[in-house]
Amino acid sequence: MKIFTLIMMCALFFTVAGWAQTQPLLLDDFEGVISGGPEGTVDFGAGNGSAVQVVADAQIKNTGAQSLKVTYDAISGGYMYVARGLGLDAKNSCWLLKPEEIAWDSYKSLTFYMYGQDSKAQVAFDVKDNGNEMWRFFVEDNFKGWKKVVCPFEQFFARSDWQPDSADKNEAIDFPLKSFQFEPLPEAEGILYFDTVELS
Ligand SMILES: [Ca+2]
Ligand SMILES: [Ca+2]
Q1: Which of 82, 99, 104, 176 has the highest Cβ tally under 10 A?
Q2: String of b and e for 115-140 (b: at least 16 CB within 10 Å)?
Q3: How far away, in angstroms, is 31 Cα from ligand 1 center?
Q4: What distance in Å separates the CA atoms of residue 186 and residue 47, rounded to the nearest whole number?
Q5: Distance from the alpha carbon of residue 64 to the mean position of ligand 1, in angstroms
Q6: Does the pLDDT at position 9 exceed 80?
């Protein structure tokens, strides 16, 4: 009887430990009002001839009631950004959790869902670290429909094409991260949907 109890307790322990380890943390679901500008909930814009529009979409979504619909035209020499997080120009673009409240040590990857159109467009997924240094991960739109994109922290690289003036440029990802951004890269145009950004 004692051995049976011990075995059951061990089984319970490993089940709980496994659950705690694999349970992802929802960082952003793009719910509620989606708007741009200084009072907006998404920090987005484009320059040098490129264009981007960002709205909520209630038809094509992965979790919750809506996703983020990004309509883009990325021309040669142009740039764009669609960002959420802390310290951005759009005042209300915060994640569901404050960066400093997250146990970053417990996670190895950022993940998000992208609804592709198999356009072969290259999309950069950048994060800004605690030293304002920008780190990049590439994903290609080479699938149709929703796909979970897994971005291990160790596979991000510091951007060499551009960094904010305030970046520490210490070549180390300093946690807590402050924000993330999606950037369809030139030359490409189309529509992408994003949803369900998690830590795992
Ligand atoms: Ca959602
Ligand atoms: Ca850094």
Answers
A1: 82
A2: bbeebebbbbbbbbbbebbbbbbebe
A3: 5
A4: 12
A5: 4
A6: no
